[in-house]
Amino acid sequence: MPVSGTCPGGDSVGQTRGRIFFFLPALILLAAFVVYPVINTVWLSFQTPEGEFSFLKNYAEILSEPELVDLRGFKRGFPYGALIHNIMWIVIHLPLTVMLGLILAVILRDVKGGAVIKSIIFLGMVTPMVVGGIILRFLFDGSVGILPSFLNLFGITRRTLTAHPDTALFALILGSLWLWTPFSMVLYSAGLETIPEYVYEAAVIDGASPLRIFFLITVPLLRPVTGVVITMTFLWVLKIFDIVYVATMGGPGGASNVLALQMYMYAFRQFNANAAAVVATFLMIVALIVSIPTFRALRGDEA
Amino acid sequence: MRRKILIVFLVALVAICSLPGVAAEKKLTVISGWSGPEMDAFMPVLEAFEKETGIDVDYQIYRAEDLAVLLPAQFDAKTAPADVIFMWAWFIAKHAEDGHVLDMTGYLNEADFIPGALDPVKSGDKLYGGVYTGKVKPGFWYRKSFFEKHGLEAPKTWTEFTALCSKIQRISGIKAAIASGNGVGWPLSDITEHFIASYAGPDITHALIDKKISWQDPVVASVFKDKLVPLLKAGYFSEPIEWTMAADLWWGGEYGLFFMGSWITGMVEDPDDLGVFSLPDCKGIVFAPDYAFAPAYTKYPEEAKRLLAFLSTKGQEIQVTAGGHISTYAKVPLSVYPAVDREVAALLEGVVALPDLDDTIGGEWQPAFWDQLKLLWVSPGRVDEVLETLQRKAE
């Protein structure tokens, strides 16, 4: 039983009040600007534009639209629909971000001038996404772009990669890798600093090859960092909007459309807040499904 | 003592702020998407209004795409970022229905404007906006010096047009006969609209705007399949290139023709070297005016209406002198236009002036139209799919 004037945690009543006093403003702001909009968005997704409750009807309608899932794509090629495009982003972007970030961090750790090279690579990360999108447009342009010129060296005909349905999405994913990989590289670099040097020294004395050291020491000890990189990259890819909007506007013919852009189209072109709320709620649920277990696993690691 | 000084100071401050001419100083804000040289050409119009009325005007730049995101939320909160806003006509008409736009009825005399110019911002007998100058999308621009050097002539028949494309295509150093400008897709929509107006006719253009005819109708489909697609398949059109870059490449001699609106006259080094022709058999030319409105939430409704009326009338006369603009106000004399704009205006003679198809329809359909045309340009074989999508989006 708590002593009089002491809270169950052992703190004094004054301390608890103080904590509540400082916690309250943040709680009010969170409630007003996060909790209320989230609840309202979910509620909107269950309503018709006339305000009638329709439960899952909106979801059934929106998720069956070809803009979201277009199965004809499997016969004819792009577009496959925004949902499948987002899945393709995840399948391609996520492993490449993890691998490239890790490899760059390991390689540049002991290289002379590695810090300078890392800073240069990090420029992609600090570039505003809208500017990044515009740069991508020129980077992949058939006349002046670096990549088509490079491919031309191998006999591949120059063409604007973002203008063709079969290459637009892949070009954007490649561009996004340039902008996002620095994030994973920096996290892995910080993670590498936490691995004690004596662990490597012991491995070398035991005769372990560099590859075995990498796979049996570096990779396992960086597992918590990998968890963060995977979660953050997943969320980044799920909400990808700006570079798609600026570079291709989801085109050509919807070939690079993504869920966030489709949500924008519903909200600000159709002025259909309910349809936009369906996509927003769907994105939120997927984000929660992925991030909650990851953070739980990370907490378990820390414990 | 200090407290007394503070009280006296605050009372004096309130008194000064209450004086007429300090608190009541009115300043209007105008928003449009014009920046750079376009903004420079617009500023004298606002300065003329300030001089005439003594009301200060502040100018801010917002793209229409950004306003489409910003304004609905602001209107819901019963506020607005400016007193006069240039915006798409369909957007003005839509929000006028919901009571977010000031009624301009009685401030402008319809008879003073070219027929139909105010229609897109009218609802019944009520007028909800002002019309500014317009830009003509007359057809294919070329450099006179380029045509002279290679012995080329503007075509008078469809056969001559395709022969011209073929001839340009064979000139050494030419990448394609026609440079295809791309923004978010709109330059391609201008080309397509010109083909529809020329080979399906103005009535079909109006029917498509009013959704009275299907995009898969044989008449419409034939324009795509018999005229546009063969040119695309022959490679006469370049793949879509960012439009300002396309203009530079065309001017630099990498392409022979460039489809663009009349504002191109203000973008090139030597406007006297510009020539333009419409597609043979052209029956209608897009004449796209800019529209503006005063939001219902302006602090100064009377002054905002006055500014809107000024822009729609006297302002147009000042604007057209800068070039690239054609007045919708009938009282602007032809003598104030630069020579190249008089040539553009001459193309309008004998053909029907048409509204911009995608700007008039607007909504979700507009970006879908742009996007589908980008697909058509690189995959002309998918024309049926493009038409099917356009029809589905129109329904």
Percent of residues in helices of chain A comes to: 55-70%
Mean pLDDT of chain A: 89
Query: Helix and strand succession of chain B?
Result: HEHEHEHEEEEHHEEHHHEHEEEHHHEHHH
CATH fold group of the largest domain in chain B: D-Maltodextrin-Binding Protein, domain 2
The global form of chain B is globular
Uncertain segments of chain B are none
CATH class division of the largest domain in chain A: Mainly Alpha
Q: Domains counted in the coordinates of chain A: how many?
A: 2
CATH H level of the largest domain in chain B: which superfamily? Periplasmic binding protein-like II
Number of strands of chain A: 0
Specify the oligomeric state: heterodimer
Largest sheet of chain B: 6 strands, mixed
* Number of separate domains of chain B: 2
Number of strands of chain B: 14
Task: Describe this entry's structure for a reader.
With 303 residues, chain A is mainly alpha-helical. Chain A folds into 2 domains: 13-59; 67-302, MetI-like (MetI-like fold), CATH 1.10.3720. Chain A is 70% helix and 0% strand. Chain A contains 14 helices and no strands. Chain A has helices at residues 13-45, 57-63, 73-76, 82-109, 114-126, 129-139, 146-152, 168-193, 197-205, 210-221, 223-238, 242-247, 259-268, 273-302. Chain A is flat, with a radius of gyration of 24 Å. The model of chain A has no long low-confidence stretch (mean pLDDT 89). With 395 residues, chain B is α/β, with parallel strands linked by helices. The radius of gyration of chain B is 24 Å and the shape is globular. Chain B contains 16 helices and 14 strands. The relative contact order of chain B is 0.17. In chain B, helix 7 packs across helix 8, helix 7 crosses helix 9 and helix 7 crosses helix 15 (365-378). The mean pLDDT of chain B is 90. Chain B starts with a helix and ends with a helix. Chain B folds into 2 domains: 26-135 and 289-342, Periplasmic binding protein-like II (D-Maltodextrin-Binding Protein, domain 2); 137-287 and 352-394, 3-Layer(aba) Sandwich (D-Maltodextrin-Binding Protein, domain 2), CATH 3.40.190.10. In chain B, strands 1, 2, 3, 6, 13 and 14 form a 6-stranded mixed β-sheet that branches.
